[in-house]
Amino acid sequence: MEVREYQSSDEEGWLRCRVLSFLQTAYYDNVLQEKETYENPAIELVAVKDDQLVGLIDVEYEKTERTLCSRGNGLGGMIWHLAVHPDFRRNGIGNKLLAEAEKLAKQKGLNRLEAWTRDDDWVNSWYEKNNFRRVDSYLHVYMDGQNELKNTITSEKPSLYPVQVFAHYTGKETKKIKANYKRVHECICYEKEL
User: Fold this and answer.
1) Where is the N-acetyltransferase domain (predicted)?
2) How confident is the model over 28-54, as a mean pLDDT?
3) Which of 94, 120, 116 is nearest to 28 (CA)?
4) I want to staple 114 with a disulfide (CB 3.0 to 4.6 A). Which of 69, 95, 181, 187 is the partner?
C-alpha cells in the first residue's frame, strides 16, 4: 500500500471510498458528488493498494491563527475528511494516513490538529487511541415530518412548507432535545497537539 498526495485523477476513487466508508456511520447520508476544495492550503493524502483508492485524509490548515480551528494558540489544521474503504479496515490504513498527515503538518509549522465527528463509538475510540482528546461537543438535530417540525419550524413565505430540517443545538437541554427528535447525534470535537 502506498500513501501519497491526492491528484485530481483520484476524484472518483476518493468519492467512492468516502461514500462507502461513511455508509456504516452516523454520517451515512452525508454524500458528496465532487471532492471538496479548500479556501486555505490543505494536506490531501490518499492510500492506494493495487491501483484502488482505499483511504483518504484531508487537512485544511491555517495561515492565520484561529481562522479554522476553534481553540489553542499557534497554527492548527482541521481534518475535514478521514475515511478507509470498508473492505480494507483494520489494516492500519487510517493510522498510516494520520501519521503522514501529522509529519507534513509539523513541517508546515502546525502545532495541533482538530477533528469533529459524530457519536459512533468505534470512530471516537479510534481518535482517542491516536492521542486526540475530546474538547467540545454540540448536537446535530434532524427534524422530519409534521410532528417533529410542529411548534419548532415555520415558514414566513406563503405556500412554503418545511418538510425536513437539519439544525445545530448548542444549548444545555440536550436530554430534552434527544427525547423530542428521533435522529439526534452528538458532534464531538477532538484535538491533538503535535
Assistant:
1) 1-154
2) 97
3) 120
4) 69
Q: Specify burial of residue 159 (Cβ count, 10 A radius: 0-12, 13-18, 19+).
A: exposed
- Nearest CA to 68 out of 57, 79, 58 is that of 79
Q: CA 66, CA 43: separation in Å to the nearest integer?
A: 18
Q: Averaged over 122-129, what is the pLDDT?
A: 97
β-strands 164-169, 42-49: how paired? unpaired
pLDDT at residue number 146: 86
* 148: β partners: none
The CA distance from 42 to 113, in Å, is 12
Q: For the chain, what percent of residues have pLDDT higher than 70?
A: 100
Domain membership flag for residue 11: yes
* Residue 164, φ and ψ in degrees, nearest 5: -140, 145
Confirm whether 159 is domain-assigned.
no
What would the grid cell of residue 168 be? 445545530
**Tally of CB atoms within 10 A around 144:** 14
Pair 114, 190: CB distance under 8 Å: yes
pLDDT of residue 154: 86
pLDDT at 148 over 90: yes
Q: Which candidate, 137, 187, 184, places its Cα nearest to that of 165? A: 184
CB 85 within 8 A of CB 21: yes
